[in-house]
Amino acid sequence: MKDMFVMNFRAGYYDPVNDRWVEPEIPNEAITSQDGFPGQGMPLLWLLNANEGALRWVSHPLGDIPGKIVNFLYGYAYIRGVYAAVVVPSKDDRPELAWTLGPIWDGYRWVQINGEWKLVCDLPLAPVIEVSVSTVKETVNSWNRVGYNYDLSHALACVIAHELGHTILWDVDHNPAIQDGQDPMSILTNGDSGHHVYQQHRMHCFMWPYFPPGFVPDLDGDGNLESLPFPNLPTDFCDSYPGCQSLWHLNPK
Amino acid sequence: MCKGKLGRTLTVVIWAILTLSNLCHASPPGGRIYPKANEEATEKLKEAYAAYHQGWYDKAIELAMEVYRKYGDVHARWWPAWVKRLMKGNLPDPHNHGAILGVTIEGKAPLTMMVNGVTTVWLLSRAYLEAGRYEELMKAPWGDPMLKGIASLHLKRGDRLPQPPSKNTWRPLPLRFREEDYFILVPLDEACKVLGLSLKYVTDAKTGKKIGAHIGGKKKPLLFNKPSTTLPFVAYEEQGIVWIAFYWLAKEAGVRWWEVRNGKIYIAPNQGTK
Q1: With pLDDT > 70 as the criterion, what percentage of chain A qualifies?
Q2: Are B228 and B234 in contact (CB under 8 A)?
Q3: H/E stretch holding B18
Q4: Which of A55, A100, A223 sits opposite B152 (nearest CB)?
Q5: How far apart, in whole angstroms, are the C-alpha atoms of residue B192 and residue B183?
Q6: I need a labelling partner for A50 at 20 to 30 A (CA). Which of A59, B132, B199, B263 fits?
Q7: Across the interface, which of B24, B96, B116 has its CB nearest the CB of A63?
Q8: Does B10 score more than 60 pLDDT?
Q9: Contacts of residue A184 in chain B, CB cutoff 8 Å?
């Protein structure tokens, strides 16, 4: 993939009437920072005007949800190696830190047009990422109170990068033997949607299933954590074990 | 070039047919979908949410635990009163996640930032942690694994939260208040005077209306009627009076402990007030 386009639905902006800067809910730097998404081997990232594209509704376990039809993606995303995602702040504590709804490749399929097989996209939707800024803030504060020194904007960049990772690694299942599950062990080992697998993959990567990366809860109930988070937050996806940097692609391959 | 155009036209036709057939499915979210809280549980969790943010953690625990015992780990979502006023009731069901997201990304109103939501266990776990009841959280079979982890580190460090002084020493503030969505609201001008905080309004250049204020000498103004994901309550103006959540101002003034007793706001002594 060459290029990635992201719309930030609560970036800061200048209010010309009152000659003032309206503070962002999600600073653009949390998306564009070198501490987050645009790491080694990653596509070039562009920020888009949030008003780009129309709505398209799709069915979902949460009920019908909207996606953005981004015109330039339509029919070209796979061929051109471009991609888009929408980042929206949330106030609910579900999604906890953040979650991702609807990757764009759901609508891709091969069709014969004038005797030629072509890849067309029926559903050129940019996936939506909801980020609970307050939960990220509270989580950072909680870890800092027990001796860590995490920076909020770096933490936000990690959380958004993790979700951007899901939008593309959605189909990657690192451990087909375990599916989903809500208990700490299956969260750590299911490997769904590109998540890293406990005791198998690197822990210092955006795709670690817990935030902050490196954290493993008390699995045996002895009152001790199995692993503490890393003192420094990651600044990139891993290049090996499992090599998230090289797994980036759009489906179908 | 012509071939490309034809190809694109055909693709558009195919896309339109498929669009009409409406067979599209999005992938599930990367998280658990919780049972919806009923009306009773929603009201209790709403009160617990306000108690948590106002620093009354034990009350938050009591209310949320009642919901947990009766209904388990449920998800409550509601529209705050200020949002209902602002949108004149023109709002989707708070549990209609898609409609709320749709209005937001259409750019009509940032509804995802205006709807409040909590789940029982997440709220309970956070309240136990903030109350310093680490051991209880560690032992709880329902506790959030990450927050339990943080609690275990507090215990290892021997952290103990400071205790409030005896309530006999607390004094009432000469300050009127009202309650909305279980938050205690006070008039901004009067409260700033009582708490010894400086206040400078920001007015709209066009209408002259108060749109925000610099409080306590802060460079960044607090904007009124502006949704925020990091503030559980917003300030608003009504008939010339700006109403603001007392807990927020109290924090700015260095007041750690406060409560409402016999129709008055009481604060613990020597906490930054004049």
Answers
A1: 75
A2: yes
A3: helix B2-21
A4: A223
A5: 18
A6: A59
A7: B96
A8: no
A9: 145
What are the Cα distances from residue B129, in Å, to A165, A222, B143, B147, B156? 31, 19, 10, 7, 14
Question: Contact, B116 vs B78, CB < 8 A?
Answer: yes
Q: Which pLDDT score is estimated for B32?
A: 73
- Smallest CA–CA separation between B56 and chain A, in Å? 17
Average pLDDT across chain B, whole number: 86
* B249 and B195 Cβ atoms separated by less than 8 Å: yes
Q: What pTM was estimated for this model as a whole?
A: 0.86
Beta bridge mates, A7: A48, A86
In this predicted complex, what is the ipTM? 0.85
SS3 B212: strand
CB contact under 8 A, B98 and A60: yes
Q: How many CB pairs under 8 A join A and B?
A: 203
Contact between B152 and A218 (Cβ < 8 Å): yes
Chain B residues with CB-CB distance to A166 below 8 A:
30
Q: What pLDDT does residue A13 have?
A: 75
Q: Taking a contact as any Cβ pair under 8 Å apart, which residues of chain A between 4 and 63 contact chain B?
A: 9-10, 17-20, 22-23, 25, 50-51, 55-63
Alpha carbon A246 to its chain centroid, in Å, reads: 16
Tell me whether residues A142 and B102 touch, CB distance under 8 A.
Answer: no
Nearest CA in chain B to A23: B220
pLDDT value for B7? 40
Question: Residues B120, B71: contact at Cβ < 8 Å?
Answer: yes
Nearest CA to B112 out of B120, B121, B103 is that of B103
CA-nearest of A223, A89, A100, A232 to A155 is A232
Q: Are A96 and A138 in contact (CB under 8 A)?
A: no
Identify residue A8 by its one-letter amino acid code. N
Residues 190-209 (A) with a CB less than 8 A from some CB of B: 192-193
**Are B26 and A125 a contacting pair at CB < 8 A?**
yes
C-alpha to C-alpha distance for B132 and B235, rounded to whole angstroms: 29
Give the per-residue pLDDT at A181.
Answer: 77
Give me the residue label for tokens 């969505």.
Answer: B181
Burial A201-210 (b: 16+ CB within 10 A, else e): bbbbbbbbbb
Average pLDDT over chain A reads: 81
The answer, for A88 touching chain B at a CB cutoff of 8 Å, is yes
Residue with tokens 């509804």: B111
Determine the number of helices (DSSP H) and then strands (DSSP E) in chain B. Answer: 10, 12
Classify each residue of B247-264 as buried b or exposed e, where b means 16 or more C-beta atoms within 10 Å of its C-beta: bbbbebbebebbbeeeee
CA–CA min distance A44, chain B (Å): 24
Q: Choose between A125 and A239: higher pLDDT.
A: A239
Q: Which two tokens stand for residue B147?
A: 């927050």
Q: How many residues does chain B have?
A: 274
